[in-house]
Amino acid sequence: MTNGMNIKSSTTPILTTLRQAGWIPGRSAKELVDQWEREFFSAGEFSLHATARAVLLEFGGLSFEQDGPGETVARRSFCFDPTVAAGESDRFAEFERALGTHLCPIGEAEASEAFLLIAEDGRVLSAMDDAFLIGWSIEEAISALVLGRLGEFIRTEQAPA
User: Among candidates 50, 31, 62, which has minimal Cα distance to 122?
Assistant: First the structure.
């Protein structure tokens, strides 16, 4: 986020990818986020916390089309659109319990095979049946997604030891 994300310290491949998706310094998707608040979050399935709102204001509506080898996993497409998680709140409850925090959907990753979720403290997860911490911040998460880095497995009560 322009007031929180340290874009200037990002590597050239990350900045290039951000710009190709339509991101510019100072970007604001306020109208889109306001629409999501009226039409998606007001339904009550998810609540939009301040950290999620800040991320969506800067990155909402952006799609990153990519594939190919990454550092530890394949680079896959991802986007910032919370509405892709409609009807999926039950799926995320065990991850919220495991992390002890509220999660909010911010998009999808893995070419639509996983949801992107953000915790109130800024941690970002890629989740479907299992969840992986892909960054302690949106900066780290975007770097992991762009560069193809595997996240840290989140152990839940139901996960085998």
Answer: 50
